[in-house]
């Protein structure tokens, strides 16, 4: 009974945003491969129109002031909460992630939580010099129009990460969702726009060309991007033309180091979710695990034990906590990396071949033991349910291995806390977690180094990143 009601609600939400019958691009359910809905195919002209509208609306939005904007963001959070179940179901079907576990319901909940935290975070002017002769203050003003370009792995949450601070600081926002997951993002924007004034938040559902236009648009002041390093480079090139400020979150190949003395049974569950949250399709997931020889076999065994208990299948089935790969491109990358590892003598502990019985895009949790640096499955971002586990004997050597790639989003160290903190200080990554991996918090700055991009999101630093600093001197 309740299922029927929820299905109706989700359809109503979908109908608000999808293209009319006979138009648009079909979006397939990642698990069943049935059509979820029709993505509107907006053009570069539509994008130009959206930017013009956002530009026109920006002074009015800015003039509302922090208090009123924050109140509106809180009201938006409440609206999202009221629509949480249909949003989660649409997200689950389009993206593939299950309703349960740290997945679709969790993601929608995070959207409201992030909005509330952002609304509650003050960014006060700073007095930088006050010596009797000079009084100088640093204020933070709105930039103007922010372009938000998103990926398909956490489409709602990452959109909110981009939108919430930008709106809070008085900017208006044009969102270009990934072409793989436009419907859930457009549905989220539609819910938010029940509360927000017109043209403060606009969505344009288009392809890479539309994304490229948003990044290079002369009337866009800031681009927030989460996606691949290759696209990040193109956005940097585009910014030479419009001088847009950039925040670039370009994925990672996060290393974990398990120190001698770590307790395999105690850390196995957190290691598992660190690596396999969202079926591994997470920017700051654990993607290569270096384990000290003294605990290596026990860690591999404990991880395999946890993996065996985690049900995978279609997201709308309440029992599942792992889903399919979101798209065929990513499925092929994952399958190819496992085959390559196998051909190089790595030991497949669990998984290792497509789970065809579950559906076209399902790939089981795959632990690869005796993997080695230099193998593609270690050196390249898998972005899927695969974890290579590498043996080491010397901690200095493990640190050097963790640092040898051009990524630097996250990392983790497992074992004695004090020892782990000393190791963490030597790792080249924007965040190093101790005895956990990948947890984010709306008040803790998040961002990468090296090929993982630049710029910080979340908290006060995140607000500064969508602001124009202005000095008032005198
Ligand atoms: O990313 P793209 P894709 C990694 C993951 C994956 C790979 C490719 O390894 O295999 O990236 O994924 C828009 N100017 N991550 O193809 O191409 C595009 O339309 C402006 C890591 O999804 O970077 C989409 O909205 N925008 C990542 C967005 O950029 C452009 C999460 C991302 O697309 C553009 C997802 C251009 N020239 C994948 N070209 C993470 N950091 O978490 C495309 N776009």
Description:
With 474 residues, the protein is α/β, with parallel strands linked by helices. The chain has two domains: 265 residues, Aldehyde Dehydrogenase, Chain A, domain 1; 181 residues, Aldehyde Dehydrogenase, Chain A, domain 2 (3-Layer(aba) Sandwich), CATH 3.40.309.10. 42% of the residues lie in helices and 19% in strands. It contains 16 helices and 17 strands. The strands form four sheets. It has a seven-stranded mixed β-sheet with strand order 12-13-14-11-10-15-16, with helices on both faces. It has a five-stranded parallel β-sheet with strand order 7-6-5-8-9, with helices on both faces. It is globular, with a radius of gyration of 23 Å. The relative contact order is 0.13. The N terminus is likely disordered. Ligand TXE binds next to helix 8, helix 9 and helix 12. The site of ligand TXE has 26 residues, from helix 8, helix 9 and helix 12. InterPro entries: Ald_DH/histidinol_DH, Ald_DH_C, Ald_DH_CS_CYS, Ald_DH_CS_GLU, Ald_DH_N, Aldehyde_DH_dom, LUC3-like. Belongs to the aldehyde dehydrogenase family. Keywords: Oxidoreductase.
């Amino acid at each position: 009974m309740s299922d029927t009601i929820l299905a109706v609600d989700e359809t109503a939400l979908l109908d608000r945003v999808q293209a009319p019958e006979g138009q648009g691009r079909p979006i397939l359910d990642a698990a069943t491969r049935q059509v979820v809905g029709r993505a509107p195919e907006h053009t570069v002209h539509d994008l130009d129109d959206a930017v013009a509208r956002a530009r026109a609306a920006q002074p009015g939005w800015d003039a509302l002031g922090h208090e009123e904007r924050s109140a509106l963001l809180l009201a938006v959070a409440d609206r999202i909460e009221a629509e949480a179940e249909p949003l989660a179901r649409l997200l689950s079907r389009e993206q593939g992630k299950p309703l349960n576990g740290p997945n679709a319901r969790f993601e929608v909940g995070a959207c409201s939580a992030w909005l509330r935290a952002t609304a509650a975070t003050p960014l006060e002017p700073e007095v930088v010099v006050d010596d009797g002769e000079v009084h100088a203050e640093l204020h933070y003003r709105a930039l103007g129009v922010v372009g938000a370009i998103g990926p398909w792995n956490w489409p709602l949450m990452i959109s909110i990460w981009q939108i919430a601070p930008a709106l809070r600081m008085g900017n208006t926002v044009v969102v270009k969702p990934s072409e793989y997951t436009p419907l859930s993002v457009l549905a989220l924007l539609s819910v938010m726009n029940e509360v927000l004034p017109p043209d403060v938040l606009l969505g344009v559902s288009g392809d890479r060309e539309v994304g490229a236009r948003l990044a290079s648009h002369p009337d866009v002041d800031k681009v927030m991007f989460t996606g691949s390093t290759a696209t990040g480079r193109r956005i940097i090139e585009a910014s030479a033309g419009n001088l847009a400020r950039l925040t670039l979150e370009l994925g990672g190949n996060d290393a974990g180091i398990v120190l001698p003395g770590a307790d395999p049974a105690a850390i196995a569950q957190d290691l598992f979710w660190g690596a396999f949250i969202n079926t591994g399709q997470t920017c700051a997931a654990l993607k290569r695990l270096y384990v000290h020889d003294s605990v290596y076999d026990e860690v591999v065994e404990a991880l395999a034990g946890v993996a065996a208990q985690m049900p995978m299948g279609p997201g709308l089935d309440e029992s599942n906590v792992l889903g399919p790969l979101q798209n065929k491109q990513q499925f092929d990358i994952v399958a190819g990396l496992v085959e390559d590892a196998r051909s190089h003598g790595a030991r497949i502990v669990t998984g290792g071949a497509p789970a065809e019985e579950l559906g076209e895009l399902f790939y089981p949790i795959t632990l690869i033991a005796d993997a080695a640096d230099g193998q593609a499955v270690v050196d390249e971002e898998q972005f899927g349910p695969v974890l290579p586990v590498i043996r080491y004997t010397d901690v200095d050597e493990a640190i050097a291995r963790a640092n040898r790639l051009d990524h630097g989003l996250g990392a983790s160290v497992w074992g004695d806390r004090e020892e782990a903190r000393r190791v963490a200080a030597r790792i080249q990554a924007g965040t190093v977690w101790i005895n956990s991996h990948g947890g984010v918090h709306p008040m803790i700055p998040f961002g990468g180094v090296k090929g993982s991009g630049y710029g910080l999101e979340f908290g006060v630093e995140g607000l500064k990143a969508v602001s124009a600093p202005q000095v008032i001197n005198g």
